[in-house]
Amino acid sequence: MYIIAANLLVYIFLHFSNIKINSYPLIYYLSLVPGWISKGYVWQYVTYMFVHVDFLHILFNMYMLFMFGSMIERALGSKEFLLFYFTTGILAGVLGSLFYNLTGYSYVVVYGASGAIYALMFLSSVMVPNGRVMLFFLIPMRLGVLILGFMIIEVFRVIFVTDGVSSIVHVGGMLIAWVYCLVRFRISPFKVWKNLFTRR
C-alpha cells in the first residue's frame, strides 16, 4: 500500500506541476532515458517505476500491483517482497536501457511500474500455478497458463510491434523474476509449469 501511495503522489505531483530543469520537464529526469544513464542519471533505474503519465496507465498498474503484490507479500513477508519488487524492477530497467541503446533508441522515455509488476505476475504463477483467475472478469483460467500467455504476447510485441509500449521492460521483468526464482528461491519455473500441463 505504501508503494501504491507513492505512485499516486508522484502522479498527482507531476500532473499538476510544471517544473523544468535545463528546459526539460521534470518527468524526463524521473523517467528512464537510456541515453542519459551514461551521464550519471542512474537514479532513473528506481524513479522510472513511480512515473505514470495518464490515469488509465496508473489505474491498471496499481490494480495489478494490489492484486498480485498483496498475495506475494502475505506469502513472503514485506522485506522479501520489497527486495523482489525493487530488484526485478531495477534490473528490468537495466535490460530495457541496454536494449534501447543497442537498437539506437537511446532517447526513448521509459516509465511505469510494469517491469516489476510483470515480475510479480511471473512469481505468482510459480507460487500458485493452479490458482484461478478471471480473464476480463469473465473467463476462468489457471494462473500459470495466463502468465505463460502474457509472456508469449510480450515477446511477440518486442519483435513485431512498435506502439510506444515498452514490452522489452515487461519481458525483462519476467526474465529477471525467472533468474530470481532459480537463485534465491531454488525453484525452477520450468518444472512448475511442466507439472501444470502434465497434472492429472
Fold and architecture overview:
The chain is mainly alpha-helical and 200 residues long. It has helices at 2-16, 26-30, 34-37, 44-47, 55-76, 78-102, 114-127, 143-160, 167-183, 189-198, and strands spanning 20-21, 24-25, 132-135, 139-142. Helix 5 (55-76) crosses helix 6 (78-102) and helix 7 packs across helix 9 (167-183). 36% of the residues are buried.
Give the helix level as a range of percent: 55-70%
Mean pLDDT score, rounded? 90
Q: Specify the number of helices.
A: 10
Order of helices and strands: HEEHHHHHHEEHHH
Number of strands: 4
Q: How would a crystallographer describe the biggest sheet? A: 2 strands, antiparallel
**Structural class of the secondary elements?**
mainly alpha
Short description:
It is built from 10 helices and 4 strands; from the N terminus they run αββααααααββααα. The protein is mainly α. The protein has a two-stranded antiparallel sheet with strand order 1-2. Strands 3-4 form a two-stranded antiparallel sheet.
